[in-house]
Amino acid sequence: MFVDQVKIQVKAGKGGDGAVAFRREKYVPNGGPAGGDGGKGGSVILKVDEGLRTLMDFRYHRIFKAKPGQNGMIKGMYGRGAKDLYIAVPQGTTVTDADTGEVLGDLVENGAELVVAKGGRGGRGNIHFASAKNPAPEIAENGEPGIERNLKLELKVLADVGLVGFPSVGKSTLLSVVTSAKPKIADYHFTTLVPNLGMVRLDDGQDFVMADLPGLIEGASQGVGLGIQFLRHVERTRVILHLVDMSGTEGRDPFEDYQKINAELKKYDPALLERPQIVVASKMDMPDSAENLAKFKEQLAKDDTLATKPEVLAISSLTHQGLDELLHKTAKLLAETPAFETKAEKLQGEQAKVYEFEEQAAEAPFTLTRDADATWVLGGAKLEKLFKMTNLDHEESMMRFARQLRGMGVDDALRERGAKNGDLVRIGNFTFEFVE
């Protein structure tokens, strides 16, 4: 089964907790703190595997969690860092944050890696908190939480040449004749339900990858037929072979079909029409094809919608008429055409520019709301992270967290909102009393 779009959940490993410990060796009085740091949590990394051709593996395995780091130990021993979790993806995978829409990366090269969720750092042990005023601190940090994300993976096939056109115009037949691919071929519309790839090898040593893309119809860019689902696969192609059925069967007009497919490509991404395109007049072995081709060329010459007129080549996959000329001209066009930016790459570039040049609004360090039961509720990413990294088993760690809250302005904010002695304040599942 061909799967080209999935959503997965990834969670990096939490850092190990720092330890509170003291030296208790014979003949070493007042040995001091000796609690080690926790190890770092494992990150989640996507890695390209050229042996994969589909996202099928993610259909039934959608949640990926890296291991947490080991806790710190006595005698200043650090915890072991967890191994990173590598997830294999096929070439051509675009990774997007499903919640924010941010494009995280476009994985094209074999072996390319992308860290999608960074593991948390290990918490510091009490060995780091010793000072002249407090030589024996009972303070240690919990490990930093790992990043958790919902990701959208989209596969866009890596093909140099894309075959587009209405259903049953001969795309699969052409692919089966010029490559070793064996796509399903039948005399009904939408025989091809998934993209098929084949390698074309010419006598002069040139080769390129050709993709037979599922048949488009009018309204595909709005989801009609197989819809927009497979239009994304056209994005990576450098040359488009636009197949038009010249037999005129089913009462269809070849030039109207040609215009409708171009209109769908334009609606999806206007830049697609800027790519080199060859109009392939297929089924020239049929009785009325020659007459329809002549009429098509006249209509194309009068068409003012295109800046440059595409070349029209007549072929018959059945009799192999015109195939050599088509393949050699396609190879020549490929040699002259550079790679194009996909929509995801453009979006990624725009996001980078926004991040670089526009001043980002500073995120509030905390939020303060009040529940129906009059409990004050503290939230915010920064505050919640500090709370998770606080070791609640030791009073000194709690006092340190209270000082951090005061430094963030939480006490002042509570007073401004009318908090009084004895009011309950909640952070997550932890509740304490506000004391002036």
Automatic annotation (TrEMBL):
Binding annotation for Mg(2+): 172, 192
Domain OBG-type G positions: 159-335
Molecular functions (GO terms): GTP binding; GTPase activity; magnesium ion binding
A cellular-component GO term for this protein: cytoplasm
Transmembrane spans: none
Keyword RNA-binding: no
UniProt subcellular location: Cytoplasm
Keywords: Cytoplasm, GTP-binding, Hydrolase, Magnesium, Metal-binding, Nucleotide-binding
Gene3D superfamilies: GTP-binding protein OBG, C-terminal domain, GTP1/OBG domain, P-loop containing nucleotide triphosphate hydrolases
Cofactor: Mg(2+)
Residues reported to bind GTP: 165-172, 190-194, 212-215, 282-285, 316-318
Boundaries of every OCT domain copy: 358-436
Principal EC category: hydrolase
Obg domain: residues covered: 1-158
Entry-linked InterPro entries: G_OBG, GTP-bd, GTP-bd_Obg/CgtA, GTP-bd_prot_GTP1/OBG_C_sf, GTP1-OBG_CS, GTP1_OBG_dom, GTP1_OBG_dom_sf, OBG_GTPase
Coiled-coil annotated spans: none
Record GO biological process: ribosome biogenesis
Entry EC number(s): 3.6.5.-
Cited function: An essential GTPase which binds GTP, GDP and possibly (p)ppGpp with moderate affinity, with high nucleotide exchange rates and a fairly low GTP hydrolysis rate. Plays a role in control of the cell cycle, stress response, ribosome biogenesis and in those bacteria that undergo differentiation, in morphogenesis control.
Assembly behavior: Monomer.
NCBIfam families in UniProt: Obg_CgtA, Obg_CgtA_exten, PRK12296.1, PRK12297.1, PRK12299.1
Family statement drawn from the similarity comment of this UniProt entry: Belongs to the TRAFAC class OBG-HflX-like GTPase superfamily. OBG GTPase family.
Name assigned to this protein: GTPase Obg
Originating organism: Ligilactobacillus animalis
Gene name of the encoded protein: obgE
